[in-house]
Amino acid sequence: IFSRISNVFTGECFLAILPTSLSIAFVGLIETMLTARLVNEETKTTGNLNRECRGQGIGNIICGSLGAMPG
């Protein structure tokens, strides 16, 4: 199975997918920031936005690179 995957998912393929996955991650980041801001306003609390954004960004890049639906 791994030999078939490595033949399909090459460095060239990764570079072709990278711009799309980064743009999806950016949209996810904006969505996360807006949601966190709304939750902070409604609950009168503050959250660690840097930590939230890093986690969401890494997850969205990985999901976008693998063809999954990021969120």
Description of the molecule:
The protein has 71 residues and is mostly helical. Helices cover 82% and strands 0% of the residues. The protein has 3 helices and no strands. The protein has helices at 2-8, 11-43, 49-66. α2 runs antiparallel to α3 (49-66). It is elongated, with a radius of gyration of 16 Å. The mean pLDDT is 80.
Key terms:
71 residues; mainly alpha; 82% helix; single chain; 0% strand
Question: What's the SSE blueprint?
Answer:
Layout: H1 2-8, H2 11-43, H3 49-66
Helix pairs in contact: 2-3
Topology pattern, helix = H, strand = E: HHH
Major sheet description = none
The CA-CA distance between the termini, in Å, is: 28 Å
Q: Pick out the low-confidence regions.
A: none
Number of helices: 3
Fraction in beta strands = under 5%
- Percent of residues in helices comes to over 70%
Number of strands: 0
How confident is the prediction overall: mean pLDDT? 80
Describe the structure concisely for a colleague.
The protein is an all-alpha fold and 71 residues long. Helices cover 82% and strands 0% of the residues. The chain is elongated, with a radius of gyration of 16 Å.
